[in-house]
Design goal:
Length: 289
């Protein structure tokens, strides 16, 4: 695992500079660099998490930027990268009103710069410089940045599934959230999975998943509190399945990621037993895992 808390100084090319940093962190965290895809000023660096390392199967992320001078870097998540056609398959889609294939994944393939991909797993940068936090291993990538007084975050990777493998064979989630002070939870509409378990008909909520559904609040879903304001338990992934926002538990974030309710900001640390956790991107992250 690669845990990093650092900063990037002023740069006329913040996106390409940060992408270079992420390349080092990803490869140190067990990811394999595959190739770079470009179209005009758009650049996508493709990485693979090997099945031998994550215990589930090969899957891919792209670290994307619209230009080197962009102030946004975002992540695309997919189960398949076709190096010949240069397309993603079984990806996290940008919208849920799709009809899943028989294996409960999307049936189309897309180039890295296609808007149908879930490209909102983003982190915001600044040419003037910014702070950043990263926790990267074969199970996933969790990033956060702080620009001035605003925090941003992205997650892409595996979670522990609570559903049967017959309907949920590949538990992958990409999520984006802007973390303002005291508002640190991921809503359903901020995350998309690569499979819609057991569903083969179109629905507006297909593929959507997040830490809480839109009808729930952190208070409703909290577990054991610690030090009066922190939730020290595993972070649950919930899906919304109808227009009232009701949902069910799909899985849990990996044990290194603990849920956080309020009172914590990026960079805070917390000790629970022998583990030291750093807060960023709306979650407490075990620095050693």
């Amino acid at each position: 695992m690669t845990f990093t808390a650092s900063s990037q100084g002023a740069s006329a090319t913040p996106a390409s500079t940060f992408a270079t940093t992420l390349d080092t962190l990803l490869q140190a965290g067990g990811w394999t660099f595959v190739e770079t895809w470009t179209s005009s000023t758009f650049t996508a660096a493709i990485y693979k998490s090997p099945a031998a390392s994550n215990g589930v199967g090969d899957y891919y992320i792209a670290v994307n930027r619209s230009s080197d001078a962009s102030t946004t870097v975002y992540l695309t998540l997919a189960e398949v990268w076709n190096s010949g056609a240069k397309t993603f398959g079984k990806y996290a889609p940008s919208a849920g009103n799709l009809t899943p294939a028989a294996d409960f994944a999307v049936s189309t393939t897309k180039a890295p710069n296609d808007g149908a991909l879930y490209n909102n797993g983003l982190v915001i940068l600044s040419a003037a410089g910014f702070q950043y936090w990263a926790s990267i291993n074969a199970y996933g990538v969790h990033l956060a940045t702080r620009v001035s007084a605003t925090d941003y975050a992205a997650f892409a990777g595996l979670y522990d599934d609570l559903l049967d493998v017959s309907i949920s064979p590949f538990p992958l989630l990409a999520a984006n959230t802007t973390i303002a002070w005291g508002v640190n939870y991921v809503q359903t509409n901020a995350g998309m999975a690569t499979r819609e378990p057991g569903v083969t008909v179109a629905h507006s909520y297909n593929f959507a998943a997040g830490l809480y559904s839109s009808a729930w609040t952190p208070t409703n879903a909290q577990v054991d509190t610690y030090l009066g304001k922190y939730a020290a338990g595993r972070a649950a992934i919930i899906t919304g399945r109808n227009d009232t926002g009701q949902g069910g538990y799909r899985g849990l974030f990996k044990s290194a990621l603990r849920t956080s309710l309020s009172g914590a900001v990026n960079g805070d640390t917390l000790t629970i037993g022998a583990a030291t956790y750093c807060h960023f991107g709306g979650l407490w992250v075990d620095e050693s895992v």
